[in-house]
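Severity: low
Component: inverse-folding endpoint
Summary: output formatting inconsistent between runs
Steps to reproduce: submit the following structure tokens with default settings.
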């Protein structure tokens, strides 16, 4: 058995001292006290929020996460007894596609990374579609996500799974929870004037961002209103609300958050990035190609994330179609030479 006597720290409270001696201060206690007094180091472009703001944001996060979950539980009960009507499935799928592409093509590739350009009406439509995902107003979402790229997996990243100090399985679970949705409950403020001044200066996008509560209402109420208009049945409106509003919002939330959690933890890393981003193929269809996240961190401004052969990227198909229709211009893609420079693993087969 290992002899542990030599490992006793000098400042251990268990050190043999007479009962009335003044104990030397514990090193951890000194560091804790310093941290409490000074707070964690400031992050450029991030503002500490007041206790009242934290309370408000936490309550909003609870409503936005628990309400859709209640819808999923109700939907499971409905499915067991009645299955799902064609109308409910159509509303669910149609709005999942509309709002999901609003996030991936709009919020992410167009507004955050400016990987292509479209005329103002399409910009507006994509910003509204993304807002209806009930994630964040477009300018706040863009600011958080640019901050994620700037600090990827380092201190300052709003949702890295790699910043908990705990080791082992407990550390993994805590890190994944934080990256997936825990970060929503520990708010700070990503200062939008620093991270998204381009969008703040664009009247159309600034007003769509300010009108976020309206898009939340439209997103929640459109399915039941459409169902009622088509069937004049309150029961049909109620099930449309469960499937077309709540379940659809819940699924897209968790798929989007999985990019932050799963795609910074599990999967392949063909590119040698300085962060821990991964490619995760099982999520590629539901996330419309966003789960080629290692590729994306290697080439953040690329309009195409599925850069290698066989990598399904529906968002890219949408952008490419817009380009073929001459509605998207200045579409940015990395050259084979720049891909070569950061390539890290195995034989390379680029997508055509
Ligand atoms: Zn990432
Ligand atoms: Zn990104």
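Observed output (run 2 of 3):
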């Amino acid at each position: 058995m290992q002899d542990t006597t030599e490992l006793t720290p000098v400042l251990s409270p268990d050190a043999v001292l007479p009962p009335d001696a003044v104990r030397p201060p514990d090193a951890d206690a000194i560091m804790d006290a310093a941290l409490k007094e000074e707070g964690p180091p400031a992050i450029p472009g991030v503002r500490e929020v007041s206790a009242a703001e934290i309370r408000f944001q936490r309550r909003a996060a609870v409503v936005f996460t628990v309400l859709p979950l209640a819808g999923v539980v109700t939907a499971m009960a409905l499915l067991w007894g009645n299955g799902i009507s064609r109308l409910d499935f159509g509303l669910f799928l149609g709005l999942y596609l509309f709002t999901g592409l609003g996030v991936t093509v709009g919020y992410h590739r167009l507004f955050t990374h400016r990987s292509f350009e479209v005329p103002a009406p399409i910009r507006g439509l994509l910003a509204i579609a993304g807002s209806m995902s009930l994630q964040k107003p477009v300018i706040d979402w863009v600011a958080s996500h640019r901050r994620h790229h700037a600090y990827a997996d380092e201190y300052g990243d709003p949702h890295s799974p790699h910043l908990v100090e705990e080791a082992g399985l407990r550390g993994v679970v805590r890190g994944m929870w934080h990256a997936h949705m825990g970060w929503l409950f520990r708010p700070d403020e990503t200062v939008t004037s620093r991270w998204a001044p381009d969008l703040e200066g664009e009247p159309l996008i600034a007003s769509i961002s300010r009108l976020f509560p309206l898009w939340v209402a439209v997103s929640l109420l459109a399915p039941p209103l459409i169902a009622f208009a088509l069937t004049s049945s309150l029961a049909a409106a109620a099930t449309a609300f469960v499937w077309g509003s709540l379940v659809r919002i819940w699924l897209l939330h968790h798929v989007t958050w999985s990019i932050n959690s799963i795609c910074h933890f599990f999967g392949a890393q063909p590119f040698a990035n300085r962060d821990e981003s991964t490619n995760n193929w099982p999520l590629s269809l539901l996330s419309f190609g966003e789960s080629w996240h290692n590729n994306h961190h290697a080439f953040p401004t690329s309009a195409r994330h599925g850069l290698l052969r066989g990598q399904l990227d529906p968002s890219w198909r949408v952008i490419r179609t817009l380009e073929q229709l001459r509605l998207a211009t200045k579409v940015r893609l990395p050259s084979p030479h720049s891909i070569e420079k950061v390539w890290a693993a195995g034989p390379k087969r680029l997508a055509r």
